[in-house]
């Protein structure tokens, strides 16, 4: 059996890779929120139907709940990196 050539990394490199991944995920969530904000603004300024506004509000609420769950997961990942750092010392 042939094993792939695995690059040896230090704990600091692994820690930085994890922090970079968390930062990228956080930026992606921020882009989702900004896009939703733009959509809400557009609908609020162009829509005349109360039903349309209620539907968009409902979807925005659902999306923001999902974003909050991902934010909590990111916070847990960040705590894991912090714990990993403290245990390494």
Distinct helical segment count: 2
Number of strands: 0
Largest sheet data: none
Please give the alpha-carbon distance between the first and last residues.
37 Å
Helix-strand category: mainly alpha
Tell me briefly what this model is.
With about 90 residues, the chain is mainly alpha-helical. About 85% of the residues lie in helices and about 0% in strands.
Descriptors:
mainly alpha; single chain; elongated; 89 residues
Topology:
Elements: H1 11-46, H2 50-88
Helix pairs in contact: 1-2
Description:
The chain has one domain. Helix 1 (11-46) runs antiparallel to helix 2 (50-88). It is an all-alpha fold and 89 residues long. The model has no long low-confidence stretch (mean pLDDT 88). It is built from 2 helices and no strands. The protein is elongated and about 60 Å long. The chain starts with 10 loop residues before the first helix and ends with a helix. Helix content is 84%, strand content 0%.
